[in-house]
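Check my protein:
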Amino acid sequence: MTDPASSFGPAADIYERGRPTYPAEALDWILPAGRARVVDVGAGTGKLTRQIQARGLPVTAVDPSDGMLTQLRHAVPGVPALLGSAEALPLPDASADAVVVAQAWHWVDPARAVPEVARVLAPGGRLGLIWNHRDESAGWVRRLSDIIGRSDSGRAHDPVIGPPFGPTEAAHFTWTDLVGPERLIDMVASRSQIILMPPDERAAVLGEVRRLMATHPDMVGRTEFTLPYRTECLRATLPTS
């Protein structure tokens, strides 16, 4: 992964408060049936990890950031939380039935990550990728993207996972999240390009978001906003032999 630890680690608290979870239907589609052993790679503060654990599945979290893993251990106590990346997984051969990467495959070097994920998966194991993207059909969401940047920098763009995996399948799911003003600010502040801005530029962007909430007709005077998402998913499976 391309050094996400250096940007996200110091902002782990903000990331935990601001980032959304993932729709249950997307997890139904990505995770194999049965009591699958799951590895959540690029797990961050454990947004997806805790959803997998809530399904009663054994899950191991892997992330390159100590700061993120500290948050994850508080949020999901008892789940193994290991330093590592998709290119260097600290796990034995054939020790998982599914490897999931949420909101992070764009940090990955696929030439190194694909064979490494295949090493950790048992025969017939699955690699699942997932991204949340804001649905900009809503006027205020479109204006938010004008301020902070579009939501497609990490979009799948139908990457071919390639051998030794079988064909890549795609699906998408639409849903909405209710966010209050402070959580919206945290969501914006948790984006890597905002984290990496000089403090004065970051403050200016967050000020623009606050002005949007104070002036847009769909937001003025409201304590919660309906934020629509489109969640894009990809999956590919190893041969059974």
In short: The CA atoms of residues 171 and 199 lie 38 Å apart. The longest strand covers residues 121-134.
